[in-house]
Amino acid sequence: MQAGRQAGRQAGRQAGRRTDGRTDRQTDRQTDRQTDRQTDRPTDRQTDRQTDRQTDRQTDRQTDRQTDRQTDRQTDRQTDRQTDRQTDR
Question: What ranges does the record list as Basic and acidic residues composition bias (predicted)?
């Protein structure tokens, strides 16, 4: 009878260990996933903001350059016209 009890206890312990091990693994996975998600979110947001800022700066620079060129062209044309008029007189 004692042998039966011991075998039963061992089987119970092993089953408990397996169940505990599975539960621990599942809990660890869930915790890891949540931690990863929480860590990834701020990182993603920061990356998005940085990317947006860079894109905005580049766009602003390009717009400024184009505007400067257009302004320069218009100024040059007006200056040329005035010079031509004065020369023609």
Answer: 17-89
**Measured between alpha carbons, how far is 89 from 66 in angstroms, rounded to an integer?**
34
Sign for the pseudo-dihedral over CA of 35, 38, 41, 43? negative
The amino acid at residue 79 is T
Pair of tokens at residue 22: 């599975």
89 residues of the chain, pLDDT tens digit each? 677 677 667 766 776 666 777 788 888 888 888 887 777 777 888 888 889 999 999 999 999 999 999 998 889 888 888 888 888 77
φ, ψ (nearest 5 deg) of residue 54:
-60, -45
Count of other CB atoms within 10 angstroms of residue 66: 10
Rg, C-alpha atoms of the chain:
38
